[in-house]
Request: fold
Amino acid sequence: MGLEYMGEYYRNYAQVNLNHIRNNLELVRATIKKGCKLMVVLKANAYGHGIEQCAIACRNADMFAVATLQEALMIRRTGLRTPVLLLGPVDPNEINTVCQNEFTLTISSVSYAEQIQRECERSGQSVLCHVKVDTGLNRTGIRCRTFSVENACEEAGRIFKMPSLKIEGVYTHFACAGSENLDDQAFTQTQYSTFVSFCERMEHLGFSLGLRHCCSTSAFLTHPEMELDMVRTGMTVLGQCISDEYRKRLGLLPAICWRARVLQIHDVPQGESVSYDRMYRTEKAIKIAVIAAGYADGYKQNYSNRSRVLLNGVYAPVIGKICMDYFMADISNVPDVKEGDYA
Reply:
């Protein structure tokens, strides 16, 4: 990107590599077992990467997931007809929009299911649904524990019997699947076993569950035996991972690069301070770059004296307190930096 874009001078900008996203998706697909479906989670504007562009880049996914109806509609505006699961609730008054766009609702309780059923009856429609089961996260879903599987199945059975709700899947969400703590690992195993028991009991009662899924990113990486019928991932497709070790093992490529313009370059003698509150003082003469990003742009103040930036292929430490619109970096060891370059 040049210094001007659509007539606007760029202090800093985020650059997203869609080819890397496509590559990462295929790497994830190659990691999961054959026949297991892949759901790409694009909530929060695809984690800030741009939901419409990322959806197009991930068009080979079997399903998308988003948090809100607005996000789902943004995907549909791209022309993609890929199934979209709404992880969060939708106002029953919006059921017509949900049905017209063939979105899939998450049903987390009998009371919510009854609201959706009434609205579907009123409008003469039916809606696609996945039923969510809470196996220990204590957030949303039908409460299900090892000692209450029967009760959970009774509640879920009432939902499955509602004629306007077309159940095509059931799922749960783990609380700590990526943890190395032994107690946390045991908790994840209990959640998984509880979910499997729920599914087996529901099938024994004669209900067709459709897609069973419980693995988000950390779970399918650390517990591949729990993949079931579909895995859900967002961060890995965007080149991020639960650890650098797993990122390298998968071969993931970073999808985003944040660039900020070098505004000025100064020589600062020994014994002077840099930025507010004199948090950094020079022990020798240094050269600094003033860079056009600050906490107003999301470069947080707690990065002060702790982070680094890349200039001409060399890392430069961020020094002094990060300001609202600027921060400073020590470029003494970085060759050929000029005003107008991008860090």
